[in-house]
């Protein structure tokens, strides 16, 4: 196993936020979320509400703990969002009969109907942010971002070597 030396693209004395990948990615994410929130406002949903709805739509049912982990959201904050969704009649919470600490989540019929709008809105918003990109550029961007995620995971786990630069991305 070879040890890869991280590149030195950034230097402390020459660091400028407007040229920071993290800063730019954060700005892009903020723009995507603002546009999605704007378009989902007609369903009276905000990011903290449509994200769990969408996740429940794709997973069918889930527990509070697993949803919190999947979304990287504090369980207490997620509980508040879920309470709002439950009050709107969009989700149902059921305690496990085997373990009272476990809360199962599922969409109501109305919740399923509202959540069904989220993928189309997200597709439109993401496509709008990718205006002017060619298909190959989009695929390359996905590969680069995936590589950055793998590098971050390697750093978190203390791995010595960097992931392969040719990690394929499934589209």
Structure description:
There is one protein chain. With 171 residues, the chain is mainly alpha-helical. 56% of the residues lie in helices and 8% in strands. It contains seven helices and three strands. It has helices spanning 21-40, 47-59, 64-71, 75-87, 109-115, 118-129, 135-157; strands at 61-63, 91-95, 103-107. Helix 1 (21-40) crosses helix 6.
Task: Give a quick precis of the structure.
The chain is mainly alpha-helical and 171 residues long. It is built from 7 helices and 3 strands, in the order ααβααββααα. Helices cover 56% and strands 8% of the residues.
Tally of contiguous helical segments: 7
Which CATH architecture of the largest domain?
Answer: Orthogonal Bundle
Strand-pairing-aware structural class: mainly alpha
CATH topology of the largest domain: Arc Repressor Mutant, subunit A
Structural domains: how many: 2
Q: Separation of termini?
A: 30 Å
The CATH homology group name of the largest domain: Winged helix-like DNA-binding domain superfamily/Winged helix DNA-binding domain
Percent of residues in helices comes to 55-70%
Q: Give the total of beta strands.
A: 3
Spatial sequence of strands, sheet with the most strands: 1-3-2
Average pLDDT metric:
87
Low-confidence stretches: none
Q: Radius of gyration over alpha carbons?
A: 20 Å
Look at the structure and give the CATH class of the largest domain.
Answer: Mainly Alpha
Globally, the shape reads: globular
The biggest beta sheet is recorded as:
3 strands, antiparallel
Q: Name the beta content range.
A: 5-15%
- Give the ordered list of helices and strands: HHEHHEEHHH
């Amino acid at each position: 196993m070879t040890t890869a030396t991280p590149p030195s693209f950034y230097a402390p004395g020459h660091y400028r936020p407007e040229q920071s990948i993290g800063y730019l990615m954060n700005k892009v994410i903020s723009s995507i979320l603002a546009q999605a929130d704007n378009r989902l406002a007609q369903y009276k949903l905000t990011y903290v509400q449509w994200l769990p709805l969408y996740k429940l739509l794709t997973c069918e049912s889930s527990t509070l703990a697993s949803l919190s982990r999947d979304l990287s959201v504090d369980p207490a904050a997620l509980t508040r969002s879920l309470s709002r969704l439950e009050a709107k009649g969009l989700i149902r919470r059921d305690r496990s009969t085997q373990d009272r600490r476990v809360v199962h989540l599922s969409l109501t019929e109305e919740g399923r109907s509202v959540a069904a709008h989220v993928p189309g809105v997200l597709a439109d918003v993401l496509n709008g942010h990718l205006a002017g990109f060619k298909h190959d550029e989009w695929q390359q961007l996905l590969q680069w971002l995936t590589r950055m995620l793998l590098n971050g995971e390697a750093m978190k786990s203390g791995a010595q070597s960097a992931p392969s630069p040719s990690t394929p991305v499934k589209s």
